[in-house]
Design goal:
By secondary structure, the protein is an alpha/beta fold. Helices cover 19% and strands 28% of the residues. β8 and β9 form a beta hairpin. It is globular.
Length: 243
């Protein structure tokens, strides 16, 4: 499995960057996890829009889904230009009024996932865990070929993350706040929460993502490292890891 970070900013994209968007690839199959503001622009450094095989959305906040509209336009224009465009499935929960917007002509189809069941998308098996956030949101455990990536999406810390993330190869954990701040109230986690989770779940690598627009991001890494002795990385545009 190969993970490519397209965008990793919480709330909105920093200049020339993107909010949440991650390409997970296995055997030439490209799954785009979240499609926030700025993602479609940066994604084209790695893939053309027509090469995305499926999209899955954690929740319907703009920093996780707002580029779906322009992705649909890209497919429409690509089709007019004679490119080979097949209908793109966009998986999401339906607990939101925006779900119908995921279906557009014959270019994209909104697909409801059942969070209580394992979902198969191409080579990936995906399990879900409801998060603690201001709107319905689901963390995902994505597995293929004996490897696993857990993406917390947006959430306050919860004990249920520990068993859900157990022994995963990569924990892609949100860290929208610094140590000592009240992240729970905002439905997010701190660097310290991320480090604690990585340690309790005995994960292989921790990547801090959904990063804040304030403070020194290196402090986030140091704070997480105080709770977790494994490898900690700060998400950054274009970071690629193969597991
Ligand atoms: Zn977010
Ligand atoms: Zn959110």
């Amino acid at each position: 499995m190969k993970l490519t970070i397209v965008g990793h900013w919480g709330g909105f994209p920093k200049v020339n960057e993107a909010s949440s968007g991650y390409i997970i690839e296995e055997n030439g199959y490209h799954l785009l996890v979240d499609c926030g503001s700025g993602v479609l622009s940066l994604l084209q450094n790695f893939l053309s829009p027509e090469e995305i095989d499926a999209v899955i959305l954690s929740h319907h906040h703009p920093d996780h889904m707002t580029d779906i509209g322009v992705l649909q336009h890209a497919l429409l224009i690509g089709k007019h230009l004679g490119k080979s465009v097949s209908t793109l499935p966009i998986y999401a929960h339906s607990e939101n009024h925006l779900f119908p917007t995921l279906t557009y002509k014959d270019l994209t189809t909104g697909m409801v996932f059942n969070p209580n069941e394992c979902l198969q998308i191409g080579p990936f098996s995906i399990l879900f865990l409801k998060t603690i956030h201001s709107v319905s949101c689901y963390a995902m455990r994505i597995e293929a070929n004996g490897k696993s990536i857990v993406y917390t999406a947006d959430s306050a810390y919860q004990d249920a993350f520990v068993s859900f993330s157990r022994n995963c190869d990569i924990l892609l954990c949100e860290s929208n706040f610094y140590d000592g701040m009240d992240a729970t109230k905002a439905g997010h986690m701190t660097s310290t929460d991320a480090g604690k989770l990585a340690s309790l779940a005995a994960v292989n690598t921790l990547i801090l993502t959904h990063l804040p627009h304030f403070g020194d991001l290196n402090e986030l890494k140091k704070e997480a490292e105080q709770r977790y002795s494994g490898k900690v990385l700060l998400a950054e545009k274009g970071l690629t890891i193969e597991i």
